[in-house]
């Protein structure tokens, strides 16, 4: 059974009058990448991310579908959870905290999820201050430090030519050897096999591919400046 099809069972509980957050708690005992709880939490964060600037656009919904692809047979179920999440009284912090506990703060899978949220935030071509605040708070809950957060933002938000050091999350004061080591680590972490092993949907690999391009371009720029 796919990750997304797990939500079908959870929807039966929603039909009985339970809130989305209550259903999340009841379904959170199985491994996160295979649980209905994780599917619900991802959908909820995606929906609340799309609403962070006050309006959910068609492009943002489409971006969610691109990042977290749902089989055609499960689209109606997923859409129902998405719509419930937009009006759920529980704040996004609840879902972020529970996802962080399921994986453990700082787990690489949480960075994968953050990148998906950045992709949704930029789907309408604008990066709203409210979206930035939303993402920063979620990253803090996930245990992602500010330097890593800035690096992810530099890859997705084209408000200016990104500084290559920010893209890699390194400092110009670091040695080339240390910068190279960080570049290699990020290249390894962005490999599609690594993402799939962490429970990221195969369809979300397109984000990793874009990330890898940005990582390699940043390293090339740093090398060129040092030559």
Question: Summed up, what is this model?
Answer:
It is built from 13 helices and no strands. It is mostly helical. It has one domain (4-226).
Distance between the termini: 52 Å
User: How many domains make up the 3D coordinates?
Assistant: 1
Gyration radius, rounded: 18 Å
Q: What is the tally of beta strands?
A: 0
As residue ranges, the low-confidence spans are 1-5
Shape: globular
Quick tags:
mainly alpha, 13 helices
Polypeptide structure, described:
It is globular, with a radius of gyration of 18 Å. Helix 1 (7-15) crosses helix 3 (36-51), helix 6 runs parallel beside helix 8 (129-142) and helix 11 runs antiparallel to helix 13. It has one domain (4-226). The protein contains 13 helices and no strands. The protein has 227 residues and is mostly helical.
How is the topology of this model organized?
Blueprint lengths: L6 H9 L4 H7 L9 H16 L6 H10 L7 H13 L4 H12 L4 H14 L7 H14 L3 H11 L7 H5 L7 H14 L2 H6 L7 H22 L1
């Amino acid at each position: 059974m796919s990750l997304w099809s797990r939500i079908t069972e959870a929807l039966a509980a929603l039909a009985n009058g339970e809130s989305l957050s209550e259903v999340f708690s009841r379904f959170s005992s199985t491994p996160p990448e295979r649980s209905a709880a994780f599917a619900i939490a991802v959908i909820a964060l995606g929906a609340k991310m799309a609403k962070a600037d006050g309006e959910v656009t068609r492009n943002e919904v489409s971006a969610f579908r691109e990042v977290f692809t749902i089989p055609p047979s499960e689209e109606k179920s997923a859409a129902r959870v998405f719509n419930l999440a937009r009006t759920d009284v529980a704040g996004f912090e609840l879902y972020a905290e529970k996802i962080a506990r399921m994986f453990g703060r700082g787990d690489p899978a949480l960075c994968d999820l953050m990148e998906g949220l950045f992709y949704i935030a930029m789907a309408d071509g604008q990066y709203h201050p409210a979206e930035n605040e939303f993402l920063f708070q979620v990253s803090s809950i996930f245990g992602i430090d500010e330097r890593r957060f800035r690096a992810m933002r530099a890859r997705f938000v084209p408000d200016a030519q990104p500084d290559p050091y920010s893209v890699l999350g390194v400092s110009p004061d670091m040695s080339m050897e240390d910068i190279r080591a960080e570049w290699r680590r990020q290249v390894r972490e962005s490999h599609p096999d690594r993402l799939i092993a962490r429970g990221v949907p195969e369809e979300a690999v397109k984000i990793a591919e874009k990330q890898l391009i940005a990582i390699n371009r940043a390293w090339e720029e740093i090398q060129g400046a040092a030559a």
